Every structure is written in structure tokens, then in C-alpha cells.
Amino acid sequence: MMKAFLLLGVSSVVTAAVLPSLPAKIILSAFVLLAALTEATVWLESAAGSPNDLLAAATPYLRLFATVTAGWLMARSALIAQAEADAGAGDSAFLDSKVVTALFFCEQLLPVARGLVPAVTAGAEPLFALENAQLCD
Fold first, then answer.
1. C-alpha pair distances (Å), 32 with each of 10, 12, 118, 133
2. How far apart are CA 8 and CA 5, in angstroms?
3. pTM, whole model, 2 decimals?
């Protein structure tokens, strides 16, 4: 499943690269976040023997995956909107808003996703640093 998602993402990025009118920030964000998601996924695969590490990584990984997925959908929407706008089809104000919304997402929301990788790869040790007695005072 993960490999299929990454291939889909890479194919979308490659398709976007052939449309020079699509803002470069969207294309660059896609590459950066696919790399982040790949790094986190590879770490999860390597931690498969440690249930505590996997449990510790679950929430930040799902947040990362969801944000990257949303970014991919926004970029894909912008790609389609830009192609239609370039062809002179559709409502130009609506199509422009799709590209602007994707840019906003790339500039304001996607940078946070890259910051989730250290939380995914930290493992469970920080969660178990305190003894039970230290928590029950």
C-alpha cells in the first residue's frame, strides 16, 4: 500500500514538473514531503520488532501521512485547475482559487509535517524515561 502511494505521489510530481505554469513551491513541497514520509516509513519498517517503538510512532506518523496526503490532493487539484486555466476552460476565478489555496497549504501547513519525522523516529525511550512512582506523586 505504501509503495503504491509513493509511486502515485512521484508520478503526480513528475506530471506537475512538465507544467511550468504550476508554481514551483508546490512541486518542491511534494518532493520534500515524499522524502519525509519515506524516511518515517523506512524507520517504522526497521522498528517492526519493537511494539513500544511502533506505538510511540503511531500518532505522529498518522499525522504526517494525513498531512502529506492532503498536500498531494491539494497539489493534484492545483495541477488540474492550472491545466484547465491554461486551456481557457472553466471559471478562471475558481481555477485560480484552487492554485492559490494549494499554495497556501504548501506554505503554511505542509512545513509542519516535516517536523513530525523526529517524533516518529524517536522511539519509545522518551515515553518511558520516568518511573511509575515519579508520575504518581
1. 11, 14, 15, 42
2. 5
3. 0.76
